[in-house]
Amino acid sequence: MTSATVTQMKCACPSCNCIVSISDAVQKEGKYYCGDACANGHPNGSGCSHHGCECHA
Ligand SMILES: [Zn+2]
Ligand SMILES: [Zn+2]
Ligand SMILES: [Zn+2]
Description:
Low-confidence stretches: none
CATH architecture: Roll
Order of helices and strands: EEEEH
Bound molecules: zinc ion
């Protein structure tokens, strides 16, 4: 069975530029994030730790 489902999308964190695969993403409240830091809103002010991405609170 084939599907045309989108499998990648931008992290839902507004300041994050990472593209995440839905299968790998951290899901929270129906949104997809590249990691726990983004999903939790960067509680410690730390970035997502992805190279070249400077998103944080
Ligand atoms: Zn990022
Ligand atoms: Zn992110
Ligand atoms: Zn982020």
